[in-house]
Amino acid sequence: MSKAWVLGLTGGIGSGKSAAAEAFARLGIDTIDADHAARWVVEPGRPALQQIVQRFGEAILLADGQLNRAVLREHIFAEPEQRQWLEALLHPLIRAEISQYLAAAQSPYAILVSPLLVESGQYKNVQRVLVVDVPSEVQVVRALQRDQVSEEQLRAIMQTQMKRDERLRYADDVLCNAADKATLEREVLRLHEYYLTLKGGQ
After folding, report:
1. pLDDT confidence band for 1 (50 / 70 / 90)
2. Whose CA, among 7, 39, 53, 93, lies 20 to 30 Å from 32?
3. Is 16 marked within a binding site?
């Protein structure tokens, strides 16, 4: 069995990356979400969490010992140097977690889902890039419905992400997700059948 080639799946907040990834997973494709890997590396008992507590104090934890992401987010949005410190701590751990998972993938190709695929440079480690794209106004409506964040917080998150047209320049394939779920599923199936014909993603 040859090693799975890796498809990078990205898109702005609220574009439907997760829905697309789930549709690929239902077709038997191994997928790993960089955001999930980022959560695993700060689980209670993992060394990264201890270092975060040492830096920000016990107030950074919830009652059950889990990381309080909302409090952490406030710290890192307010002070850029705290964000740099956190990224320097977590990025190598997240990378290792992702590599390990992708190396063990059993499907013909595997998917790395990452909102910051391009911004973080992760796109250099994948063989092909699929951008899930929606108009910005759809993005805002969906993300506000789903994430229970203020519009201001949402705009701040969108600021850290690449502009839509810039992201599209990195795409080998674009999945337009402005319609309904059935349309998304059809598009995923069409791409999946195409991907199965590719050698090493090319």
Report:
1. low
2. 53
3. yes
